[in-house]
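Q: How do we represent a protein-ligand complex in a form that can be generated cell by cell?
A: Start from the inputs.
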Amino acid sequence: MSNHDLQSFVAELESRGWLKRIAAKVDPVLEITEIADRVTKAGGPALLFENVAGSAFPLLINAFGTRERMCLALGADSFDDIATRIRNILKPEIPTTLMQKLKKLPELAQLGSLAPKIVKRGLCQEVVHTDDADLLSLPALKCWPLDGQPRDFDASAQPSTTTGEPGRYITLGSVFSKHPETGDGNIGMYRVQLFEPKLAAMHWHMHHDGARHFRAYQARGQRMPLAIALGGPALMPYAATCPLPPGIDEALFAGFLLGRGIELVPCITQPDIAVPATAEFVIEGYVDPADEPILEGPFGDHTGFYSLADYYPRFHVTAITHRRSPIYPATIVGKPPQEDYWLGKATERIFLPLLQTIVPDIIDYNLPMFGCFHNCAFVRIRKEYPYQARRVMHALWGAGQMALTKIIVVVDEHVDVHDENAVWFRMCSNVDPRRDIMFTDGPLDILDHAAPVCGVGSKMGIDATRKIAGEGTIRAWPDELEMNPAVKERVTRRWAEYGL
Ligand SMILES: Cc1cc2nc3c(=O)[nH]c(=O)nc-3n(C[C@H](O)[C@H](O)[C@H](O)COP(=O)(O)O)c2cc1C
Ligand SMILES: [Mn+2]
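Then emit the C-alpha cells for the protein with manganese (II) ion bound:
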C-alpha cells in the first residue's frame, strides 16, 4: 500500500522510476531550490537528497510534481475518478449548499468507517526530543535569496536569530489544530519560518481555519496547542491544502480519499492534538495569544513574487518526535509551474461537483497556471437568460476559497476552458468592455501584492459569453464560424486522396 506512509510512497515512486536519489552533498540554502525548480519545470522526477549540508536527514522534494505522481498519492487513476465518487455521494440529495453537503460527511464517515482512528502508539514517536528539541536539526530550506530579510531588516529588532541563515522554512508541513469550543479538528498547510531551536512563526492567513481557531483561543485568553506533521499517508499534504469549509475536518476528508480512516496518535507534549501515526516528523508546540507577534517573511511565494513581511504568531516548540530513519519532505513555491500546481489542479477537479452544488450553472472551470490559483478563473456555463454570467461571478465570489478569485472570465458552453487561447479569443471578440466588464470589491488572497490593502481589493468579472436580449445595447449577434460536420467527415475520409 504505497499510500500508507511517505516511505512506502517513496519506495513505490522509485520502483516506477519516478524518483531520483542524489548522493552529492547539497546546500538547503538556495541550492536545492534551483535544482528542484529546473527539474519540476522540465516535468522531471521526485528528488531524494541523501546528503543535505548541516542535517542528518534526507530531504524529499517534487514528490507530487506531475499529474501521475499526484494521482498515485491520491490512490486514484485520475482526479476525475475522485470527483465522480464525490458526485455519487451528492447525487441522491436535493442540491443545497456546499456547507450542508459537507456537514453530511461525518454521517457518511461513520457508515464507511472513514473517520480517523486514535491509536496508542505511532512510528512517528520512535524518537522523542523535548528539552533537546531543535528545529535547526531539520534540513529546512531557504528557498529564495530574500526570504526572511524584510526591506528595512534590522537584526537588532529581531529575536537573536540562531538559525545562522535567516529565512529558513518548513514548507510542506500539515498544521493540526482543534477548535477550543466545538472540538472540531483542522489541518492546514501553512509555511513555518524558523527563528531559534524552539521558536518559529505560524503563517496562517486570516481567511484560513488555523487563524480562525487561533482567534477563538485568543477570545478565551488560552494557549493554542498545535502540531506540525511531516509525512504520514502520501495524500496528507494534499488533504491539508483542501479548501474545506470551517468545521469540516481535513482528517475525515483524508479518510474519504484513502477509503479508510487515517490513524492518529496523540501528541506527547500536546495530548489534545493527534497526528498521523506514520508521520516522519512531528513538531509539537503552542502559540500563545499573550505573545507579541513576530515579523515573518518575506517569502518567495507561489505568486512569483516575495510575499511581504508581516506579523504572525510565535510558535513555541515543546517537542520534536520522529521515526528512527525519517525522510524530511519539502516543497518550494515560485513562478509556475511548481509542484503546488498539481495540488491545485487536483482540487480544481475534485471540488467541481461540490462547487456545482452551490453554482449549478457551472459546467466546468479552469484555474489557469498563470493565475497562480486566486488571480484568475475561466468558467464555462450554459447560458439561458440575461446576466447569468454575472450571477455566476457573484456566486463564486461568495463560495469558500473561490471567493478570493480576482478575475473571472465566463464563456459559453461550447468553449473549452482548458484551452486558454479559446478563452482569450472569446474574451477579445465577445466583449464590449464598458458593457461586459464589471468590478466589485471584496476579500482577496493575502498574497495579492497588487491589492491596495492586504487581503482587500477589487475584482473583475468579464462576461465573454454571447450577448442576448436584456443585456444592454446589442446589435444582431453573429453566429460563430463552424464547418458543416458532414463536410468535415468527408474531408477526413478523403484526406489521403488529396495527397497533402
Ligand atoms: C505549498 C503550499 C503552501 C501554502 N502555504 C500557506 C501559508 O503559508 N499560509 C496559508 O494560510 N495558506 C497556505 N497555503 C494554502 C492553504 O494550505 C489552503 O488554503 C488550505 O485550504 C487552508 O486550510 P484551512 O482553510 O483549513 O486553513 C499553502 C498551500 C500550498 C499548496
Ligand atoms: Mn479547514
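Residues 186, 188-191, 203-205, 208-210, 240-243, 331, 333, 340, 343, 401 surround flavin mononucleotide (ligand 1) (CB under 6 Å). The CA atoms of residues 20 and 47 lie 5 Å apart.
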